């Protein structure tokens, strides 16, 4: 789940850049003959944003450059060329590497709207590749901040698909809200995830609804609190991440009351 922490940090980077623009157990043996929610499936549900997080890095850089250069400036380097306007920008990536990623190719179109309380923008991926992985669709981002609470909230509405090299496809539709609270140091920096979204992968459909916000911190590589309901092909399972203690386990509760502890 360390990958999930990295993803939230990438989203925070994008969040800050966008604001810059605004400013300028029990064993589960009894389930052997039933459908279950496997550890690998839980990781798929939680880490779908990992690949898109690479694009978030690119978005952050583009927003930062736009804030420095002005809304009507054009920009290019060996990695990408970008054409800015009053309503957004179009960036074309040319087989380049950003912060250690795999090579990025394709076109990213961003349209944005800046208000007094929030910044909103929509990113559309066209023939966009991260290595051999193809990303298609849109992600709409809305950023809000609270100076008094020392926090930032970041909502992402996704309608996207990720096609792997073996031609298998993972899709995601729905809404996630990432909230970040700043502490006195990195260990007291916390984040939470809430929302509901649907993922299809390997012939299965997973509908996710957070019941209590999923919570984590930079002091722990795993989610430490919160719960969500996951419906897999009609089977509804509750996933509980604990009560705040930093550990690598979660508890699954099936409809018949059977509990299973899994390692994250």
Task: Describe what you observe in this structure.
Keywords: Signal. Residues 1-25 form the signal peptide. This protein is α+β, with helices and mostly antiparallel strands and 264 residues long. It has one domain (2-219). Helix content is 19%, strand content 51%. It contains three helices and 14 strands. The chain has helices spanning 2-23, 39-46, 49-69, and strands at 74-76, 80-85, 88-96, 104-114, 118-130, 133-146, 151-163, 169-181, 190-201, 204-217, 225-232, 235-243, 249-253, 259-263. A hairpin with a 2-residue loop joins strand 2 and strand 3. Helix 1 runs parallel beside helix 3 (49-69). The chain is globular, with a radius of gyration of 19 Å. The model is unreliable at 19-33 (pLDDT under 50).
Task: Give a quick summary of the entry.
The chain is an alpha+beta fold. It is 19% helix and 51% strand. The protein has helices spanning 2-23, 39-46, 49-69; strands spanning 74-76, 80-85, 88-96, 104-114, 118-130, 133-146, 151-163, 169-181, 190-201, 204-217, 225-232, 235-243, 249-253, 259-263.
- Average pLDDT metric: 77
Question: Oligomeric form of this entry?
Answer: single chain
Number of strands: 14
Radius of gyration: 19 Å
Tell me the structural class.
Answer: alpha+beta
Keywords:
globular; 3 helices; 264 residues; alpha+beta; 14-stranded antiparallel sheet
Helix/strand layout:
Blueprint (H helix, E strand, L loop, with lengths): L1 H22 L15 H8 L2 H21 L4 E3 L3 E6 L2 E9 L7 E11 L3 E13 L2 E14 L4 E13 L5 E13 L8 E12 L2 E14 L7 E8 L2 E9 L5 E5 L5 E5 L1
Antiparallel strand pairs: 1-2, 2-3, 3-4, 4-5, 5-6, 6-7, 7-8, 8-9, 9-10, 10-11, 11-12, 12-13, 13-14
Helix pairs in contact: 1-3
Keywords: Signal
